[in-house]
Amino acid sequence: MMMTTNDDLQLFRDAHILDGLTDKQISILAAAIDVFAANGYANSSTKEIARRAGVAEGNIFSTFKNKRGLLHAIIDPVRQSLFPQAMDELVKYKLAVKYTTLREFLDNIIRDRIGYLRANSKVIKIFVSELFYDQDMRSQFVRKFPVAYWLQFDRQFHHLKRLGQLVNWKNGEIGEVMSGIIGEVFLGYLFFGQPLSDATVQRTIDTLVTVLTPRV
């Protein structure tokens, strides 16, 4: 099977989710990611997706049933497999390291996640949009969030506190501050066209270091 060159499908390709699909089906998925990310699910049509994929609209219905089925062909693998896998890799390769400074910790974690965001921005935008609008999906996502992720952050916070690198706040409060500042940058990039330049990344790290460093 000839593989599409669309980089937005790399996440699916790496996880072998596209194995067994025809070129036409892969083209439909790639087109749907483009259209949903650009217009939002509600403002997208199967006619536009078919035109972008270069196929008849009936090809969408015969494979994915309807527009909702096409959306779930994109977000279900993210929720069930791809996102947990990404979190598992973060836990194993970034959060398992014993960092010696707060800046080193933040630099590694933030740059790793921003790299992932840049590489998969369209798929992540579609997935996050559905989390906003689908309460059941949001609840399931929160319940299934990897426990190891929180445990490793908890260990990192305690470790950095012992080194005198991190403010002596409750770990939940530290996590909220980090999520708020980083999340604002992520959402600005995904939904409001704000740049995710190296300068922006560095300012985000500098801001968190300033906020979370203990006052002498």
Automatic annotation (TrEMBL):
This is Helix-turn-helix domain containing protein. The keyword Nucleotidyltransferase does not apply. InterPro entries: Homeodomain-like_sf, HTH-type_TetR-like_transc_reg, HTH_TetR. The lineage of its organism: Bacteria, Bacillati, Bacillota, Bacilli, Lactobacillales. Residues 22-82 form the HTH tetR-type domain. The keyword Transmembrane does not apply. Keywords: DNA-binding. Residues 45-64 bind DNA. It holds the Pfam family TetR_N.
